[in-house]
C-alpha cells in the first residue's frame, strides 16, 4: 500500500512514519541467518506494524533486533536518527522541502570526524531512505513525488582524502567571473534574466532554491538604493537580504521588459514556469567557460561559498555570516574561518619572538 508523502499534517510525524516503514522493510530484507531468538524477532516485527510514537522507540526496537542477531541494522539507524532530529529542528512544513543541498550540508557537518567507510555508510543509508520514499509515496490522484537524490557533489563521500573545504572564488576570480557574466552570450529573452539571477546569488549568498523562489512582491527598492529581498529559506523560515541596486540596475530593467506579466516569480521561463536547478547549472557552466575558470564544483552553490568566505574575511563576524546565509547552526558557518589568511598567519608567526 502506498501513502501520501506528507502522511499527516505534522512534519515530524510524517517523517517518523517513513523512517518506521523504511526500517521495518530493512528488518525483513537484511540477512537474518544469525538471528537466534526467532520469537523475540517476530515480536519486534509485530511492533513495527503498529503506530510508533518516537524516534527513540524505533532506535530501541532496532537495538533489540541487533541483540537477536540481525546484522547491519545500525548502519541505517544511526544516520537516520541524526537526520530526523536535524530536520525536526528546522521546522519544515512538508517533506517536499527537503533538498539535496540540505543533505550535503548535513553530511558535511555530521560525518566530519568519521572514517571514510562510515561516511560512505551514511551516504548510502540516506540515499536508500529517500529512494524508498520515491517508490512508496503516492497521492490520491496516483501521482508520486520523486526526490531523485544522487549526492554526487559532496567531496567527502567515499574519499580517502577526507572532507575538503568548499570550492569558492577568490577576489581575482570573482572579478574575472563578473566580467564573464556580461560577456557570455545568451538568447535575447534570457540574457538579462541569467545575468540578474547569477549576480543575485553571488551578491547575496542565496541558495539556488531560495533565489528561484523569490516572488516579485518579495523584492522592494528602498530610498537608499538597496533592494530589500524577503527570502523563504529552509524550514519555511524567512530572512531578509539586501542587494545594491547599482550592481544589477541595468539587468533588472532589461529583464522586467521581457518577464511574463502573469508570473508571480521574479525569475521564470518565457512561458511563466519556475526555473530548475539544472537550468542554473547550465548558465553557470557557460559563464565559467567564458571566464576560463574551473573548480572541483562548478555549480551555483560555489557562489554562496564565495559570498560566505568574503563576508567573513571582511567582517570576522560569524553571527553576521550565520544570519546572512540563513544557517540554523553557527557551526555550519565556522567553515569560513578556514579561509582567514590573517588569522592563520598568527599560527605561522608564533615562534617569531
How would you describe what is shown here?
With 353 residues, this protein is mainly alpha-helical. The chain is built from 15 helices and three strands. The protein has a three-stranded antiparallel β-sheet. The radius of gyration is 23 Å and the shape is globular. The model is unreliable at 157-163 (pLDDT under 50).
Q: CATH superfamily of the largest domain, called what?
A: Intergrase catalytic core
Count up the helices. Answer: 15
Please give the radius of gyration in angstroms.
23 Å
Distance between the amino and carboxyl termini: 72 Å
- What is the highest CATH level, the class of the largest domain? Mainly Alpha
Task: Please mark out the parts with pLDDT under 50 across 5 or more consecutive residues, or reply none.
Answer: 157-163
Main sheet properties: 3 strands, antiparallel
CATH architecture of the largest domain: Orthogonal Bundle
According to DSSP, the number of beta strands is 3
* Tally of discrete structural domains: 2
- Class by helix and strand content? mainly alpha
Q: What is the ordering of alpha helices and beta strands?
A: HHHHHHHHHEEEHHHHHH
| Content of β-strand | under 5%
Helix content percent band: 40-55%
Mean pLDDT: 88
Shape: globular
Looking at the structure, the CATH topology of the largest domain is hpI Integrase, Chain A
Query: Can you list the strand order of the major beta sheet?
Result: 1-2-3
Amino acid at each position: 500500500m502506498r501513502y501520501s508523502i506528507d502522511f499527516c499534517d505534522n512534519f515530524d510525524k510524517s517523517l517518523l512514519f517513513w523512517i518506521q516503514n523504511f526500517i521495518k522493510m530493512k528488518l525483513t530484507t537484511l540477512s537474518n541467518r544469525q538471528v537466534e531468538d526467532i520469537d523475540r524477532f517476530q515480536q519486534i516485527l509485530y511492533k513495527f506494524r503498529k503506530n510508533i510514537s518516537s524516534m527513540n522507540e524505533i532506535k530501541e526496537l532496532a537495538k533489540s533486533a541487533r541483540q537477536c542477531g540481525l546484522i547491519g541494522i545500525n548502519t541505517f539507524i544511526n544516520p537516520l536518527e541524526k537526520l530526523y532530529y536535524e530536520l525536526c529542528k528546522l521546522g519544515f512544513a512538508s517533506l517536499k522541502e527537503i533538498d539535496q543541498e540540505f543533505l550535503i550540508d548535513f553530511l558535511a557537518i555530521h560525518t566530519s570526524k568519521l572514517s571514510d567507510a562510515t561516511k560512505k555508510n551514511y551516504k548510502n543509508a540516506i540515499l536508500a531512505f529517500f529512494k524508498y520514499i520515491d517508490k512508496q509515496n503516492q497521492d490520491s490522484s496516483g501521482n508520486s513525488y520523486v526526490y531523485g537524490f544522487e549526492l554526487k557533489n559532496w567531496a567527502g563521500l567515499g574519499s580517502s582524502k577526507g572532507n575538503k573545504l568548499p570550492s569558492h572564488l577568490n577576489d581575482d576570480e570573482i572579478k574575472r567571473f563578473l566580467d564573464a557574466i556580461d560577456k557570455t552570450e545568451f538568447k535575447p529573452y534570457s540574457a538579462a534574466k541569467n545575468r540578474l539571477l547569477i549576480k543575485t546569488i553571488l551578491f547575496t549568498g542565496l541558495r539556488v532554491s531560495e533565489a528561484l523562489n523569490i516572488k516579485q512582491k518579495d523584492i522592494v527598492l528602498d530610498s537608499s538604493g538597496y533592494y530589500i529581498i524577503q527570502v523563504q529559506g529552509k524550514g519555511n523560515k524567512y530572512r531578509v537580504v539586501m542587494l545594491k541596486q547599482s550592481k544589477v540596475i541595468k539587468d533588472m530593467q532589461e529583464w522586467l521588459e521581457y518577464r511574463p506579466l502573469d508570473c508571480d516569480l521574479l525569475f521564470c521561463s518565457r512561458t511563466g514556469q519556475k526555473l530548475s536547478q539544472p537550468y542554473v547549472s547550465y548558465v553557470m557552466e557557460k559563464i565559467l567557460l567564458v571566464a576560463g575558470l574551473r573548480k572541483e564544483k562548478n555549480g551555483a552553490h560555489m557562489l554562496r561559498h564565495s559570498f560566505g568566505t568574503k563576508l567573513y574575511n571582511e567582517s570576522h563576524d560569524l553571527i553576521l555570516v550565520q544570519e546572512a546565509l540563513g544557517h540554523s547552526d553557527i557551526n555550519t558557518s565556522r567553515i569560513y574561518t578556514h579561509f582567514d589568511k590573517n588569522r592563520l598567519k598568527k599560527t605561522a608567526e608564533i615562534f617569531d619572538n
